[in-house]
Design goal:
Serine Threonine Protein Phosphatase 5, Tetratricopeptide repeat, two-stranded antiparallel sheet, 17 helices, binds zinc ion, TPR-like_helical_dom_sf, RING-type domain-containing protein, Mitotic_Regulator, Sel1-like
Length: about 400
């Protein structure tokens, strides 16, 4: 500190510090530190090292909080003199640590609330955003929200539009050949290089949906591409930056599983949260599981209530189970059930029912195909997502 302490003060502080550091060291501890830089081992491995939690850097000190004048020059020996601050996940204000209860202080920013927000019942931004389906979840032809089961809709590589099977079937029955939206003739399933060329064209034009689709094909080694997860992650990240919630979700799954990339649960959760805040239903469900497993039942319930109200049956069952085990009220469950039912109703249409029936019939007469089947099948190829991380 500039002229506010003597040289003797500093020398004494330095001696004390060095002794304390020495006391905290041991050969074993040094070993653990080194191990942290080794390639990470998965849970259950014999070595038993888990990734260390990285402590977030403290927010910059704000001298205004305590009414001091800001220091003229930052000294490397500056001693913290103001309370560290944290951002509240509900009001998004940066507040001193003591504005939070001890329990809330231990939480990550997205699920932490200041005392004031807890008292007034101000909800987390994480729960306020994405509680309805987004516009891009609507079928561009019938304008109804797309079914949650991705097998009941398909992406067209010509225009990158995702449409429900009901509209695909209806267009086919009206004699429309080609994409039901833009009428472009689609290459046959076997013509993967032509399909890839069409995606590439949209990709080159910077279409986020094409970036996502290509990432997905690298992820699974489709369209004649060799499976390349590193490339897939890179493209998912680009698509995620452009707001594609499915890309966030797939990144979440990839980092959570940690099979093809280094496992990173914190990163996975950040991606699930980004997806959920854009209305991604499975990501929302997974966050519910995560909070439930962490013992944050109030947050788990909030996530599952949202997920159920968007039409997710698994989430509805979780809310029901929480009700039967006394962790949710009867009103919670009744509310979730009501919203779930209306979401399911909204996703229904006679054309969609007919498309499902058509697929069932197709399966039962697989040996007896009509020439028309092949043509229509091309449009029933679902653009898949990863669905493995339902716990
Ligand atoms: Zn707050
Ligand atoms: Zn439709
Ligand atoms: Zn099209």
């Amino acid at each position: 500190m500039d002229g506010l302490a003597t040289k003797a003060d500093y020398a004494q502080a330095l001696r004390g510090y060095q002794n304390a550091v020495e006391e905290m060291r041991s050969p074993d501890r040094d070993e653990v530190e080194r191990a942290d830089w080794l390639p990470e081992t998965r849970e259950g491995d014999a070595t038993g090292f888990f990734p260390r939690r990285r402590v977030a850097p403290r927010a910059a000190k704000d001298s205004r909080l305590e009414g001091h004048d800001p220091p003229q020059r930052v000294s490397s020996l500056a001693i913290p003199y103001s309370t560290p601050t944290m951002i509240c996940g509900a009001c998004e204000r940066e507040l001193p640590e003591d504005a939070y209860s001890a329990e809330q202080r231990g939480r990550r920013q997205s699920i932490r609330r200041c005392e004031e927000c807890v008292d007034s019942g101000n909800q987390l931004v994480l729960m306020k955003k994405g509680s309805t389906r987004s516009e891009e979840d609507e079928c561009p032809i019938c304008s109804l929200p797309l079914p949650l089961d991705r097998k009941q809709s398909s992406s067209q590589v010509c225009c990158m539009k995702r449409m429900c099977n009901g509209c695909v079937l209806a267009a086919h029955q009206r004699g429309i050949r080609g994409c039901p939206f833009c009428r472009t003739k689609k290459p046959k399933k076997s013509q993967t290089s032509q399909t890839l060329a069409m995606v590439q064209k949209r990709f080159d034009a910077g279409d986020p949906a094409a970036i996502y689709l290509l990432a997905n094909k690298y992820d699974r080694g489709k369209y004649g591409l060799e499976k390349d997860v590193a490339r897939a992650v890179e493209l998912y990240e680009r698509a995620a930056e452009l707001g594609v919630k499915e890309a966030h979700y797939n990144l979440g799954c990839t980092y959570y599983e940690g099979v093809d990339v280094k496992k990173d649960t914190a990163k996975a959760i950040r991606h699930y949260e980004a997806a959920a805040m854009r209305g991604h239903v499975a990501a929302r469900y997974n966050l519910g599981c995560e909070e439930y497993n962490a013992g944050n039942y109030d947050l788990a319930l909030q996530h599952w209530m949202i997920s159920a109200s968007l039409g997710d049956r698994d989430a509805l069952n979780e809310v029901k189970e929480m009700f039967t085990s006394g962790l949710a009220t009867k009103a919670d469950y009744a509310g979730a059930l009501r919203c779930y039912q209306s979401a399911v109703e909204e996703m229904k249409s006679p054309d969609r029912d007919e498309a499902e029936q058509y697929k069932r019939d197709r399966r039962s007469r697989a040996m007896d195909r009509s020439p028309d089947d092949g043509e229509l099948d091309q449009y029933f190829v679902p653009g898949r997502e990863r669905w493995p991380s339902r716990f």
